[in-house]
Design brief:
This protein is an all-alpha fold. It has one domain. The chain is 80% helix and 0% strand.
Length: 204
């Protein structure tokens, strides 16, 4: 695809990623008939967390989709998607420490340690931080191959995000299990690709 089309695609991707946040704001300010329901804090947490996880899985989809289709321009969208995912999940955590716990740090730390799904979610977000701060072209050039190795942390972050979703105690586990299946498929495709490369290397 001609490079001239990359800029419009990035704008479309940006607007698509912003849509859940704008929708959440409309509900938060009760625009028209919209509202956040009986438990607004829980709804904000759920919307931000699920949006971040959705975008993270879309980010993971870029590489196998590029390999199977030859649409190399998809790579140009990967950094933006990753940063949007980090932003949503950071807002998810910020909502948790502010609206849910009101900056009660002692109780907050105890809660993170005591409840496995909070521990898993916090670990996943902490692992995303170095990926976000090393996403610029300048740092990529400075790190070289180390940057590629560092960004493989996403293969750990995505399962942690799904496990966090599953362990929240949702009555119907079907949706988290669908997410688990998607992550398993995306990581499995990478393993198959790596195994194929290894076989080709041994034969050469």
């Amino acid at each position: 695809m001609a490079s001239v089309l990359i800029a419009p695609l990035k704008i479309i991707t940006c607007l698509a990623c912003l849509t859940p946040f704008v929708w959440l704001l409309l509900r938060a300010f009760a625009i028209g008939p919209l509202d956040l329901g009986a438990n607004p804090v829980e709804e904000v947490l759920h919307t931000l967390g699920k949006s971040g996880l959705n975008i993270l899985l879309i980010t993971l989809t870029i590489t196998p989709l590029r390999r199977f289709t030859g649409l190399h321009w998809l790579v140009a969208l990967r950094r933006m998607l990753g940063l949007f995912s980090f932003a949503y999940l950071s807002l998810h955590f910020l909502t948790y420490i502010t609206l849910d716990w009101g900056f009660a740090w002692n109780s907050l730390i105890v809660d993170i340690i005591a409840r496995p799904y909070i521990t898993v979610g916090f670990t996943g977000l902490a692992l995303m931080f170095p990926l976000a701060i090393t996403s610029t072209n300048r740092i990529q050039r400075r790190l070289g191959r180390k940057w590629v190795k560092l960004h493989r942390l996403i293969y750990v972050i995505a399962p942690l995000g799904v496990l966090h979703f599953y362990w929240q105690g949702i009555r119907d586990p079907f949706e988290p299990l669908v997410y688990a299946g998607i992550v398993t498929l995306l990581l499995g495709l990478r393993i198959l690709y790596w195994a194929g490369k290894q076989r080709m290397i041994r034969k050469s």
